[in-house]
Amino acid sequence: MTQPRAVESPLVRLLADVGVVVAAVTAVLYYFGWVRTRFQARALGFDVSALSLTTTDYVLKSLNVLFLPLILLLAVVLVGYQAHLRWVAPAIERLPERTVLGAARLLGLAWVPLAVVALILLATPVAGYAMPVTLTASVLLARYGRSVRQARSDTDPWPMPTRVIAVILLALAVFWCTERVARTTGEAFGRDFAADPGQLPAVVVFSAKDLRLAGPGVTRTVTLDPQAAYQFEYRGLYMLERSGDRYFFITTAPGRVVVLTENDSLRMEFTARR
Hints:
Blueprint: H1 10-44, H2 55-94, H3 97-108, H4 111-121, H5 127-153, H6 160-195, E1 202-207, E2 219-222, E3 232-243, E4 246-250, E5 257-261, E6 266-271
Helix pairs in contact: 1-2, 1-6, 2-6, 3-5, 4-5, 5-6
């Protein structure tokens, strides 16, 4: 006698699907946040592994990386959609079929001139964006040409393998572009903090022991009162990051990165720029 087959609850299936999506989005945000922090740390002269940030920290740091690309993407989609409705859609219906299909095929070959543009851009300061941007534009134009041909001939010119490959290429190209944005953002933050540490909270460190802190702009004051709990005072530090019980400070240019562990022998005072 066969056992009755268990029926999976729709709620369980929905929760599983949502869990997969959340995990994938978290992984992507983590990666972009890590890239941004890695290149920021490199610009300041240390390695990101020293921070030991949590997943939440990296996810939060990825938000300002994704903000600009998402705004630009939505703006391009909106403008493109309006242009399609106003000019392209009427032209598809009005022009001869041979002309429309020929123009659509040319869109599929747009990668040829774009490849030339990418090679030229490799010799410019934006060389890091040359390949991902041109690849994204090539796939988008090819997919648009496919849509035009499908709208006029009522048949899909791409077989299933081609459609799958195009989707994968587009996803990789967009991911590549965003990774470059994360890298550029991190480098920009790092150079900005190194050039002007005063935009970060200023920190005064009081210590019961001599910490031997040194660096450009760091001053030490010794309290002669034997009853004082903290006899050493350090100024000229600016707080960059906190990770667990560790504080990361930078000094003025050319700059150093100072790491202190929170304990009972230390007291810190923070002052925002006025």
